């Protein structure tokens, strides 16, 4: 165990961390930039120059319509998107008029998860001839058709169908297709290997150090792993039937990704301590994401189109709220002096930029070339940034604990006298981000803690009331109620009202004051109970309740 702790060094330099980050980012960019055979880069990989134009339709149009019609719009980088139209034709034109080169030319189409038939048409001078596209693998996302060897004009057409079908078309030869497949497989193997390694590493840290944020990060990485594997068709490579299971569809996994982001943001940034309001927003949107996911699974492919679109919009809004909440939480963390929040903010900026690009690309509002390869790169950058964030967090926690231990040593004799658990006190102060400068203030509370009755808020300060033989005295404390509760812990103190804490070891009686209001009574003293705290008070003083 001690050996594993040493493997997680606390004294790592921030400058070295950022240098490693920059080097890894530059390396990754160089690897991805060399993948010029990627289908969605929009680069032409054969010597034949060509252009691609598109015409979308609300109704089906047969091939004879194509002969004399010139109402096609040129598309950039050969990326097509049918948007809300159910039908479209692509027009592939050879610029130099030599669409039939000596070597065999293939038309390669990579598309999203809308698996409708795609067909190739050309006119031989007498009749329209048709060819079907075939899948390179069993994912049905990567399609290919052989260019006709002899045609009347240097133009061929591709018939598309399916709302929101989008993808990319390119011309290449056999050797280039093989090289592209090999390159894509190598990059995917490296990517999924990196993700699997980080998932395993974070699970080990969770098991050894009991850090819940590492467990939620493992969940986030796992969902990302399966989401991208599904989007790229790797799920069908292992089991073709899984593509029909709603849980493994990209839409389903995208909703789960939103849930995982909300959970991780709350834990990594300690939102419950840093900003309870943002924590609640993320929590409720996290539950909403699960509700959307469950409804999607139950109603998979059974809803009318406009209902499905409404659900898509609501899920997008939910995801946007989660991302914005995470960004605001990171800003709040930076304001509280948390160094890991700076890196988290950077990771969220990367993620939200990709999410906006992804949404705009899917809706067709702007002509942005977005691919799963882009999302892969963004997720690797995010993994690197957040991993350094974990190191920075650990380094900061280590320094804070050292400072807390140093100050607690001065109170060691008092802590033993009043039977205060030193480790529990350190844990409370560290986990709740209490400033170690307040430890001397806590020293005023420790002598009266066994006799403490209640603590009442007084602006940004508070006043402790305690038994002193036959009377009740007061002690001014130079901190607010929440800091006092965070430091001493809820196993000794209970918040019963926004302005009151009570000592759980005292024999209070829970008494009804009106039909809806209650008090905690001890002797001649009454402490009011706020309605939002009543259920917690009842659990704590259940045996003493009087009506």
From TrEMBL:
InterPro entries: 7TMR_DISM_rcpt_extracell_dom1, LytTR_DNA-bd_dom. Signal peptide: none annotated. GO terms for molecular function: DNA binding. Residues 394-428 form a coiled coil. Residues 443-542 form the HTH LytTR-type domain. It holds the Pfam family 7TMR-DISM_7TM. The chain crosses the membrane at residues 12-32, 189-209, 216-235, 247-269, 281-300, 306-331, 343-368, 374-392. Keywords: Coiled coil, DNA-binding, Membrane, Transmembrane, Transmembrane helix, Two-component regulatory system. SMART domains: LytTR. This is LytTR family transcriptional regulator DNA-binding domain-containing protein. It comes from Shewanella electrodiphila.
